[in-house]
Write a structure and sequence with these properties.
alpha+beta; 2 domains; 8-stranded mixed sheet; hydrolase; phenylalanine catabolism; fumarylacetoacetase; EC 3.7.1.2
């Protein structure tokens, strides 16, 4: 099947047709297959009922979907449907787990004292985001306003992206271990955590990101079940983490791609992330906090050591000082009104084939 969406992929999404309700479907090539006729959790209008049912139900549903698609059901062109958020978002947490991203940002923003914070290699750092502003890819992103400096309020002048991978919780739980990961996390999706860097610089000390992040987070319309993916060893961690963060759990060799106004500008490598999704989940719940069906937690910006592996434009343009030339000849330091960003990616399936992760996109409006 073309476009990396064959039988070993089949990510879930929610779609509607003009005048109709919302249905669960899977993507097959450039089409969508309606799952309503399969009944049960697959006849719901969001993924939440299936996700809450647990891993045995996830596997049974996937077997049923593969059999259904193999039988050659009617397909609907993607151009004929509207895609919606594939799950109802309960909570949103964003992490900061790329060592290269953390190091590069420190060099840009703290050149007098670059380096990792002392706790960075001891725990997965994160912050609690705003679930109400998580939107499906394709939703226009309105330029946020806020305090830019002392006595200055107005639209952000340094609007940025963060290319991330999100993990979607299915089964609720608390004080989970890294080995609980596969029983509680249903799948993954691509995330763009839009960021206003000037608001962030003014507000983030001492309590971290707030209004610079909460105005919009875009997620892909497709959620790929974890069972569809091949795993790879996690990166070596030194010093050894505390017992509740061991073993590290599975890692995934995802290759992201960032396009700015249809110009490819970066290919962030997810396999280089220091903290795994299993460790993030364990740390998130280690104090007794619970996760619920539909909780979304994101990896944090994915960045590699090369400039063209940067997962944010802050890094790519060195805080706007080294502008990027786009295909139309224009140059950019940060996002301008009308700019369009698409974050896509590929992975290796459990069957060993390269598959597509789809994409998450957004256009900046004034």
């Amino acid at each position: 099947m073309s476009d990396g969406f064959g039988l070993d992929n089949l990510p879930y999404g929610v779609f509607s047709r003009p005048g109709g309700g919302r249905h669960l479907g899977v993507r097959l090539g450039t089409d969508v297959v309606d799952l309503s006729s399969l009944g049960g959790h697959l006849a719901a209008s969001s993924l939440n009922p299936l996700m809450a049912a647990g891993r045995a139900a996830w596997r049974a549903a996937r077997e049923a979907v593969i059999a259904h698609v193999t039988a050659g059901p009617p397909v609907i062109p993607l151009s004929a449907v509207t895609l919606h958020l594939p799950f109802e978002v309960a909570d949103y947490t964003d992490f900061y787990s790329s060592e290269q991203h953390a190091l590069t940002v420190s060099k840009i923003l703290r050149p007098e004292a670059p380096g990792l914070p002392p706790q960075w290699k001891h725990l997965p750092i994160g912050y609690h985001g705003r679930s109400a502003t998580v939107v499906v890819g394709g939703t226009p992103i309105r330029r946020p306003s806020g305090q830019l400096a002392e006595g200055v309020f107005g639209p952000t002048r340094r609007l940025d992206i963060e290319a991330e991978v999100g993990f979607v919780v299915g089964v609720p739980g608390r004080q989970l271990t890294t080995t609980d990961f596969a029983e509680h996390v249903f799948g993954l999706t691509l995330v763009n955590d839009w960021s206003a860097r000037d608001l962030q610089a003014w507000e983030y000390r001492p309590l971290g990101p707030f209004l610079a992040k909460s105005f919009a987070t875009s997620v892909s319309p497709w959620v790929l079940p974890l069972d569809a993916l091949a795993t790879v060893p996690a990166v070596a961690q030194d010093p050894e983490p505390l017992a509740y963060l061991r073993p590290a759990g599975p890692a995934y060799d995802l290759r992201l791609r960032v396009e700015w106004n249809d110009t490819p500008v970066s290919r962030p490598p997810f396999a280089s992330m220091y903290w795994t999704a299993a460790q993030q989940l364990a740390h998130l719940t280690s104090n007794g906090a619970a996760v619920r069906t539909g909780d979304l937690y994101a990896s944090g910006t994915v960045s590699g050591p090369a400039r063209d592996e940067a997962g944010s434009f802050l890094e790519l343009t060195w805080n706007g000082a080294e502008q990027v030339k786009l295909a139309d000849g224009s140059r950019r330091g940060f996002l301008e009104d009308g700019d369009h960003v698409r974050i896509g990616g590929t992975a290796i399936s459990a069957a060993g084939a390269e598959i597509s992760l789809g994409s998450v996109s957004g256009t900046v409006v004034p």
